[in-house]
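Supplementary Note 3. Input sequence used for the single-chain structure prediction.
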Amino acid sequence: MRKVVLLCGMVLLMTGVCNAQLQIPQHYYQALQDFASEDAENPWGTKNENAPEEVRQFGQIAGLWLIQNESMNRQGEWSAPDTAYWAFKYILDGYAVQDLYLVERNGVYGSLTQIRLFQPEQENWRVKYISTNSDGTTQHGDFIATEEDGAMVMNELELKEGSVRITFFDMQSDSFQWRTEYYIEQAGRWIDVAKISATRVDLDDFTMPD
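The predicted structure, written as discrete structure tokens, is reproduced below.
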């Protein structure tokens, strides 16, 4: 059974036209509720007025997003989209941004969180992430992020074979696009290996299965 039932069609949903309710697994709904603030007026927080203006670069996507995630296999073919849930909020008194990503793939439940802190002296962001899966695997790492022509580009600390570059782009009030690229050192080029289309939603848009 699909974890999200798009009651009036994916095309309508991804264009923001459809407002029908969606189904979400109960443990994901609870995790998102726990992640959000108890402040009903600002559940995803706000930027501190004294924080650098650049904090809005990631802060602009504070909120909850419905995700369609595709990945490329070794044969160069794109997978069918997976549905995921991604929430962003201001933390540390409005000086930083944290996110929570929840996805289920092939029966394995995964979660990832990242803390993003703008560094005024370096004029960039330091991003630290950790992920865990229900099969017991974990990952962690660091990125440096910068704003480039309206996009947010995250690079690993060292460029080498297999390095990952992540880009948030076409960032609108109710949608954004995202891609991951993989570095092939011998060829000196990047190839796309994953992509996301995100649509802003509210927790009230979801119901839990009977």
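Residues 54 and 118 are 7 Å apart (CA to CA). The longest strand covers residues 189-201.
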